[in-house]
């Protein structure tokens, strides 16, 4: 399982495709994944459409990169971000990149960075095209970052899917998700059918980079699995350190 916590990350933000109101939540999320040693944001700062970003840049020590729009209708920030990313890559000062954008034009950049051994984390809105999502090691939707509604379901586990009122702002738990969970458990299960849940989560992220229990209204994978009690059995096993438990899961027969 790839550990992100100590990675030195270059955070590159596309101001034209990301709402500034989410900046604090995004940076808090990035801090969970690694250390943002480089923070840059790209846009045409002469335009009033990006003026809302300016207070956030000072508060969070993000370096603005000016890129004029030479042609009407074209996103000029793309080329500037790509050039900077390649310069940073060859400087060998970071372990990975966080590309903050909902623009599919960064698909090839994400692929190229991963080919060079970099961890690539994407952050964008749910409208982000799938090619960019799958080109990343992990993709996080802005809509679920810091969602207060998630906290309401921390301790709730039921044997049925969430009601329409509960899942209004979240993805529904459908058969496709359940089959993804089952196939991942089967891939890792021992002779008795049990699989270590942390390893299951890591495998699911490899198969589906945008998988996140928060997309379905749960803060972690464990409560999501527990909510599907008619499909899965959960076993919490104590280890030598009594305050730590290893969670195992198997498909209910």
List keywords for this structure.
253 residues, 8 helices, 9 strands, elongated, alpha/beta, six-stranded parallel sheet, three-stranded antiparallel sheet
Structural overview:
The structure is a single chain. The protein is α/β, with parallel strands linked by helices and 253 residues long. Helices cover 31% and strands 21% of the residues. A six-stranded parallel β-sheet has the order 3-2-1-4-5-6, with helices on both faces. A three-stranded antiparallel β-sheet has the order 7-9-8. It is elongated, with a radius of gyration of 20 Å.
The largest sheet has its strands arranged as: 3-2-1-4-5-6
> How many individual β-strands?
9
Q: Summarize the biggest pleated sheet.
A: 6 strands, parallel
Total number of helical segments? 8
Rg, Å, rounded = 20 Å
| Class of secondary structure makeup | alpha/beta
Cα end-to-end separation: 28 Å
As residue ranges, the low-confidence spans are 162-168
The coarse silhouette is elongated
Helix content: 25-40%
- Sketch the topology as an H/E string, one letter per element: EHEHEHEHEHEHEHHEE
Please indicate the percent range of residues in DSSP E strands (runs of 2 or more). 15-25%
Mean pLDDT: 85
Short description:
This protein has 8 helices and 9 strands. With 253 residues, the chain is of the alpha/beta class.
Chart the SSEs and their pairings.
Layout: E1 7-14, H1 23-33, E2 34-43, H2 54-60, E3 63-66, H3 77-91, E4 96-100, H4 107-115, E5 119-124, H5 130-134, E6 138-141, H6 175-188, E7 195-196, H7 197-207, H8 221-226, E8 232-238, E9 245-251
Parallel strand pairs: 1-2, 1-4, 2-3, 4-5, 5-6
Antiparallel strand pairs: 7-9, 8-9
